[in-house]
Design a protein that fits this description.
By secondary structure, the protein is α/β, with parallel strands linked by helices. It contains 12 helices and 7 strands.
């Protein structure tokens, strides 16, 4: 058998020797956990005698310091990390869903006061004051931190794990003395008029349907259909649709699709179909909107107070409660 002798360059040979030497030193080092040195027999005998002469002290168990076994049992299962297959990439886990308690008052505590109209010069001056204001800078910083910590797939994972129903709607109206007011959201209707949602809801008992995407329309339509069937032709009850698009890229697509939206929406609904482009974080917090993939409906009285609310697909009992509670808000006209 012919064996060819390979010559290694001096530089490569020195690097190889240093590598082998470092590995040899690394694996030849003793373990840091050194065993205790053996003591002579005389010292062991003296220690045993001193231990016998000392009285035995009772052992007390401190209830504040748990034992190692109890620590193992107290560890929650939520701290365990799941990975994708054999990789070390952790799976995305949905944050706990923060919902409101059914029957609690939602909205803002005081009615919205519209500011006086401003000229372009006044708007520029106000914008400059907001830029120099420390309070406005802290608010924008908190908003940016919230956007960074909120994943794009958070709502999708939450919908997959918890379903499309946050809670079952309450069966009673919120008392007028405890009810809060509807926040202000401005936009443009399908009829081309720039207005505010509080102007559309003022003076009538209104079922306000809030959608963030096409998927949530089936949720709100399940409430709108029985509402329109029960109060068709009524002058004191109406339906207002609020379509919100927070993403600027999707907002451009929605603007291009407005002709299609107008064709597929009845003309008598164009005046009450409001479209808003931009962030609505204040509306989310005040109205208890926890997932943008779910549709929400709110029952608003004539004084713009939120008296009832529901989400997701309507159950038969929820639709019946909605119609019954709306009849309570509509005044009985004497003939």
């Amino acid at each position: 058998m012919f064996v060819r002798k390979v010559s290694i360059p001096f530089a490569a040979r020195s690097v190889l020797q240093r590598t082998l030497h470092s590995n040899r030193v690394l694996y030849s080092q003793p373990d840091n956990s050194k065993p205790s040195e053996a003591k002579p027999a005389d010292s062991k005998l003296a220690e045993s005698k001193s231990a016998e002469s000392k009285p035995a002290q009772p052992t007390t168990v401190d209830s504040k310091t748990p034992s190692p076994e109890s620590k193992k049992t107290q560890e929650p299962d939520d701290e365990k990390i799941e990975y994708f297959g054999n990789t070390r990439f952790p799976k995305f886990r949905a944050k706990p869903r923060r919902t409101i308690t059914p029957g609690d008052a939602i909205g803002q505590a005081t009615p919205t006061v519209k500011p006086a109209p401003q000229t372009l010069k006044e708007q520029a001056q106000q914008k400059w004051r907001d830029i120099l204001s420390p309070e406005k800078n802290l608010e924008s910083r908190a908003r940016i931190i919230h956007d960074i910590g909120h994943s794009y797939f958070q709502d999708i994972v939450d919908l997959r794990d918890n379903g499309d129903k946050l809670f079952e709607a309450p069966k009673q109206l919120i008392r007028s003395s405890k009810a809060h007011y509807l926040p202000s959201v401005s936009g443009k209707t399908l009829a081309g008029q720039t207005t505010d949602v509080i102007d559309l809801c003022r003076g009538k008992t209104t079922l306000l349907a809030v959608n963030f995407n096409k998927f949530s329309e089936q949720h709100t339509n399940s409430f709108i259909d029985p509402f329109e069937a029960a109060f068709a032709g009524s002058e004191d009850a109406q339906v207002v649709r609020l379509n919100i698009e927070e993403n600027w890229a999707k907002a451009m697509v929605l603007q291009m699709c407005l002709p299609y939206l107008r064709r597929h929406t009845p003309k008598d609904h164009h005046a009450n179909y409001l479209i808003h482009y931009g962030d609505v974080e204040g509306l989310r917090k005040s109205m208890g909107i926890a997932n943008s993939l779910i549709g929400y409906v709110f029952l608003i009285d004539k004084e713009l107070r939120v008296r009832w609310y529901a989400n997701g697909l309507a159950v038969m009992s929820e639709a019946q409660s909605m119609v019954m509670l709306t009849q309570r808000l509509i005044p009985n006209k004497k003939k």
